[in-house]
Specification:
about 425 residues; alpha/beta; Dihydrodipicolinate Reductase, domain 2; Alpha-Beta Plaits; 3 domains; elongated
Amino acid sequence: MKPIKVGLLGIGTVGGGTYTVLKRNQEEITRRAGRGIVVTMIADRDLDRANSFADSGVVVTGNAQDVIANPEIDIVVELIGGTTIAKDLVLAAIAQGKHVVTANKALLANHGTEIFSAARGKGVMVAFEAAVAGGIPIIKALREGLTANRIEWVAGIINGTANFILSEMREKSLPFAPVLEQAQKLGYAEADPTYDIEGVDAAHKITLMSAIAFGVPVQFDKVYMEGITKLTQEDISYAEELGYRIKLLGITRRVEKGIELRVHPALIPANRLIANVEGVMNAVMVKGDAVGATLYYGAGAGAEPTASAVIADLVDVARVQTADPANRVPMLSFQPDALTDTPILPMEEVETACYLRLQVIDKPGSLAEISRVLADFNISISAVIQKEVTSEGGPVNVIMLTHKNPEKDMNAAIARIETLSIVTGRVTRIRIEELEG
């Protein structure tokens, strides 16, 4: 059987890793796919870099449209990133009847509904395992391995940069700014790290996982995002004392009123496996009604780990490209006509337990006054810790852990507490996720 011909758009870190791994493991991949998979065209603005990878017979071009227009190309691999040019190229490839493999989570989170619809109309596949959690096969697990389950929730450490920063802050008792600078020097964080540290990257990924887990359209515009820039080493230490680790989590959960879709820092019990994922590693927990809680761990970025996911998609496409489109695994797990309009809940309606840190003037009755405010909003306290007074008559840190309550009630309670004369400064609130299996 003749080999599948692949056109590679972009040969940066992931593109280079894809070309290298595909070449190195060609024999093994062919045995699995049932036919060869070969890159026959590479498009990249850096022609010198592209030519440094290309073997004899591989066409190198600076124009991505050359790849799309070539009738011999079966699969287009989009690895250029962004949501403008990449969108145009992906839609053009689909219009030409070519399958698409992409690692572009921002593209799919923002434009996935349009892209998947176009692909269904042309009877082609859009595969995107590499778009979420690098080399961890979480998309395949959600879409195929757990297909017997009613998924209850998905929670993941899905941004390695943020996880590295939080790990270093905890292990070395350092504040945020110097650790971010270190991450940039090591190449873990971009010069503009906004997407990583403000939760945008994680939001792209949890949006895609939510669509697959619950059979709803891709709805990035409805995800709640909160980053790690306001976290202090002080709170990380206090959490440790209480038996928790702070992680940036992407969370999507099915509840009675709809679906939660959110990214924010969270305290996780230190005895949970996911709480012990350190450095740039990623991990995703999935709770199914039949299987219980499952954990998927591995490298969330990097040339060859991400290439592993790209090539797995290439093999999948190679295996089924001649199959009737109606008999393929649906791109979002559920059949297109079976997607539901289950609402994504606004954050105000989400219920979570919370960690609160307040700076309180140390005098009799202070804690009782704060407790009355919480009681007014039906917020119950599960634990209170008062730290040592640093100066006579000065403020003292008070840590409170609450039981679950609606976000809107906690917001209102915090706003009132901050008006009390005994409270100095702003109240720090970090949500708690038990992630019980």
